[in-house]
């Protein structure tokens, strides 16, 4: 992106925001400019709403968007990762989890204010991420990976609670989707003071932060205490994100979109990037909220700003992505750091563990009288579909995760990051919403296939001119996933009973899978496994870098396209069967590496076994833990598997 394009973007956003303010002023304010500062008790109700509702709402949009953008720039600077943003630290997920837990189990604490509860949750999540990363010196990849795992873990916990406390969870849906609605200038003043305090901290750290753009080794050689500077920058970024979440909820994709615009605009100096990111992020969020204010004024429809900002921010990132490249060295460097694990005896007994989990899930269960062991054929006929489906989905998700992580050299890559699962889920929910299709019917499957293919086509179209570069593919997937998540949040906030009924499927449940579907999915998993194994050479060479792969005779563009297509097909098949799985594709490949599966062929074999065992075990625990009630296998896999993964990361 050229400087002129960047300036034009900023000017267009500024012009729109000024136009919205002028239009609202003409419609909602009937007095002169001097009366804007009049005492509240002298104003009519309509004028009072403009001064203490509309204006602080727009101001909050500017401050919140700017704060998230500054946080994203700080994170990218110290983590050497252009995809880092405020969500990396699990701040939003921590705030949401704390608010939901307080609402359900301790509503009395809300007298201190929902913002205070959300802030405690956000800070707790941050401390958890830093604790997980401390033994590795707060290394950039470890911090990012810890934040991602923590976010997925907390999201699974809130998802499980939402299934049992539907009304309470629905009441928080609008806050979770992000709302800038204000009734005074108080919160605006609070966020402004936080920004001033953080700005002073950044000013004091600006010189070492500039040097942090170099590698850690070079920064240390220049006398920079890398660990402490990184910790300070992470803390400042987390404070900004936590206060935004506590005051207005989660604002999707604003920070990443603004920081990407600034980076691709060619601005190199950190201080200038921070100021430019604040301006772009603030104008972007205020501009999006301006659209919502116009809709509210004309049609009396109030939409959540956070979810809608993702709808605006995701296409912007896709547009900006095509203007410049994303450095490949960051992800490759991170991938090499993830394999420093000793060989484990666990690999040798993994087939026994998988077989044992299958037999236990098939033969053991509970009734009113207690536990029982049964070899009844009638019981087998009831259980084998969901057991096969769970195992097959685990295999498909794990294989897709291995392909993506090896292909991109990025330890954070997973099927969810590609956006295929999210795209499939959105297409299915859209069919339920607009076409009133029945879950499990032919329309359900058809809409899911269309969604998966449309997402894949979008990925190919956005990356066909850059040779299918892995980093740009990941960024495309993140944008599409954010776009899909925003639509799901908007629909969920509506409270429509059909969407509420989809929550179990969205949590990854196997209870409705038929025998025919389970057998077909198992066959697909076996075929996919057989197809992936001969591609081990591609995976090994591409895991180094594209230059090495090309020098060894690999058609890099063709190999990447085939691997991405396989990952998309496997993710779509698993999603259509049991719903989006939020953790297996990330967890299984990492566990395989931790157990010593270093070579591509080893990782494909053992990650598939781990994925199957994890999902079968999760399905069994979900059926028995709260008997006679059930927890979806996807939620259980994330909660239990995530707990182990967090423990293992701490010991690495």
TrEMBL record:
The keyword Mitochondrion does not apply. GO terms for biological process: siderophore-iron import into cell. It is found in: Cell membrane. One of its GO terms (molecular function) is transmembrane transporter activity. GO terms for cellular component: plasma membrane. InterPro entries: ABC_BtuC-like, ABC_transptr_permease_BtuC. The chain crosses the membrane at residues 58-75, 87-105, 111-134, 141-165, 185-206, 218-237, 243-262, 274-299, 305-324, 345-364, 384-404, 416-435, 441-461, 473-491, 511-531, 538-558, 564-592, 604-625, 631-649. Its main location: membrane. Keywords: Cell membrane, Membrane, Transmembrane, Transmembrane helix, Transport. It is a multi-pass membrane protein. NCBIfam families: PRK10577.1-2. Belongs to the binding-protein-dependent transport system permease family. FecCD subfamily. This is Iron(III)-hydroxamate import system permease protein fhuB.
């Amino acid at each position: 992106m050229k400087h002129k394009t960047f300036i034009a973007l900023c000017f267009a956003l500024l012009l729109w925001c000024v136009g919205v303010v002028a239009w609202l002023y003409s419609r909602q304010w009937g007095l002169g400019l001097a009366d804007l500062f009049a005492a509240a008790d002298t104003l009519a109700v309509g004028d009072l709403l403009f001064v203490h509702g509309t204006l602080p709402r727009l101001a909050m949009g500017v401050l919140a968007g700017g704060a998230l953008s500054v946080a994203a720039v700080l994170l990218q600077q110290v983590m050497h990762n252009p995809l880092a943003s405020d969500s990396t630290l699990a701040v939003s997920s921590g705030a949401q989890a704390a608010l939901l837990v307080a609402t359900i189990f301790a509503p009395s604490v809300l007298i201190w204010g929902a913002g205070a509860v959300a802030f405690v949750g956000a800070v707790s999540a941050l401390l958890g991420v830093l604790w997980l990363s401390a033994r590795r010196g707060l290394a950039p990849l470890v911090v990012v990976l810890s934040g991602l795992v923590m976010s997925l873990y907390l999201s699974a916990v809130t998802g499980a609670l939402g299934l049992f406390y539907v009304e309470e969870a629905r009441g928080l849906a609008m806050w979770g989707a992000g709302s800038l609605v204000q009734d005074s200038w108080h919160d605006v003043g609070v966020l402004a003071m936080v920004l001033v305090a953080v700005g002073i901290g950044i000013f004091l750290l600006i010189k070492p932060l500039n040097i942090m753009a170099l590698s850690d080794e070079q920064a240390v050689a220049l006398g920079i205490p890398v660990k402490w500077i990184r910790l300070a920058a992470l803390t400042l970024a987390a404070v900004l994100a936590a206060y935004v979440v506590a005051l207005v909820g989660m604002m999707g994709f604003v920070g990443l979109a603004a920081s990407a615009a600034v980076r691709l605009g060619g601005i190199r100096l950190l201080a200038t990037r921070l100021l430019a990111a604040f301006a772009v992020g603030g104008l972007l969020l205020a501009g999006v909220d301006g659209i919502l204010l116009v809709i509210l004024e004309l049609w009396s429809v109030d939409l959540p700003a956070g979810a809608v900002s993702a709808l605006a921010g995701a296409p912007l990132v896709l547009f900006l992505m095509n203007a410049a490249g994303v450095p490949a060295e960051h992800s490759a460097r991170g991938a090499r750091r993830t394999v420093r694990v000793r060989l484990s005896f666990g690999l040798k007994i993994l087939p026994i563990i998988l077989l044992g989990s299958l037999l236990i899930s098939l033969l053991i269960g509970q009734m009113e009288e207690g536990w029982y062991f049964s070899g009844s054929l009638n019981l087998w006929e009831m259980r084998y579909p969901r057991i096969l489906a769970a195992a097959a989905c685990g295999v498909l998700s794990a294989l897709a995760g291995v392909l993506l992580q090896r292909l991109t050299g990025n330890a954070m890559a997973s099927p969810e990051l590609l956006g295929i699962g999210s795209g499939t889920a959105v297409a299915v929910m859209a069919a339920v919403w607009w076409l009133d299709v029945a879950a499990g019917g032919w329309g359900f499957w058809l809409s899911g296939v269309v969604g998966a293919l449309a997402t894949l086509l979008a990925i190919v179209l956005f990356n066909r001119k850059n040779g299918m570069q892995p980093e740009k593919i990941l960024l495309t997937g993140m944008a599409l996933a954010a776009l899909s998540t925003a639509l799901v949040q908007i629909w969920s906030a509506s409270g429509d009973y059909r969407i509420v009924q989809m929550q179990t499927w969205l949590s990854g449940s196997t209870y409705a899978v038929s025998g025919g579907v389970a057998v077909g999915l198992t066959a697909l998993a076996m075929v996919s496994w057989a197809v992936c194994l001969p591609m081990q050479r591609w995976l090994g060479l591409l895991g180094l870098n594209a230059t090495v792969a090309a020098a060894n005779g690999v058609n890099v563009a063709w190999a990447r396209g085939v691997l991405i297509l396989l990952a998309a097909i496997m993710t779509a098949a698993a999603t259509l069967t049991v719903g989006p799985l939020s953790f297996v594709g990330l967890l299984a490949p990492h566990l395989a590496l931790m157990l010593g599966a270093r070579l591509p062929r080893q990782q494909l074999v053992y990650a598939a076994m781990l994925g199957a065992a994890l999902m079968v075990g999760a399905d069994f625990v979900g059926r028995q833990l709260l008997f006679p009630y059930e927890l979806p296998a996807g939620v259980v896999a994330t909660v239990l598997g995530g707990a182990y993964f967090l423990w293992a990361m701490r010991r690495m």
